[in-house]
Amino acid sequence: MVERDENGHLRKGSILNPRGRPKKEREVEYYRILVTTVSKEDWMAIILKAVDQAKRGDAVARKWLADYIAGEPEHSVNLDAVIRWEDDTN
Predict the structure, then answer these.
(1) Residue ranges per domain, the chain?
(2) Rounded CA gap, 86 and 32, in Å?
């Protein structure tokens, strides 16, 4: 149940998702399906496609690659606004 204080902040112990977090076994099963379904060759093809798209100016492909290679930046940047700005200038 969601309970908020007088300022609208969640009270300690409030539950935003009444169904709760998925069970760990379910997460493990979905991960197992993922890693057994996507072959190394499939993954390589996906990466090569993203590299090609990034080189052609696709901001989403660049972000996806950068997040995998370097991780997400520590500072706060509104990447959606940056992507919209780039799309508007192209």
Answers:
(1) 39-89
(2) 37
